[in-house]
Amino acid sequence: MTNATVQPTEHGGHALSIRVCLLVWAGLLLLTAVTVGVAEVNLGFLHVLVAMMVATAKAALVVVWFMHVKYESLAIRAMLFTALLILAIFLSFVFFDVAYR
Q1: Taking a C-beta distance cutoff of 8 angstroms, is the pair 35, 26 a contact?
Q2: What are residue 6's DSSP bridge partners?
Q3: Which of residues 79 and 96 earns the better pLDDT score?
Q4: pLDDT tens, position by position, 31-67
Q5: How far apart are CA 17 and CA 36, in angstroms?
Q6: CB atoms within 10 A of CB 65
Q7: Alpha-carbon gap, residue 75 to 100, rounded angstroms
Q8: Residue 80 host element (H or E)
Q9: Who contacts 89 (Cβ-Cβ below 8 Å, separation ≥6)?
């Protein structure tokens, strides 16, 4: 399955087009600007939540496009999602513990 943005390489991998790489890079730069902008605003306890949401979005861009998870099987994606869900649950326990001290 080949389209305009992804071409299979001779060793079976996927090569992203320059356009896709630049769009992902621009998205990462935009999210970095959002992180810097939010740092200037006093949101109280929500500050950590917003920072984690932006960091999650940036990590998702990197994992999906640059680590080629988009092209993996459903089983691999399900295992990755499950591991990240468990990590999010553990991190939320830490944040609740810190928030109610």
Answers
A1: no
A2: 16
A3: 79
A4: 999 999 998 999 887 888 888 889 989 998 988 888 8
A5: 29
A6: 21
A7: 38
A8: helix 74-99
A9: none
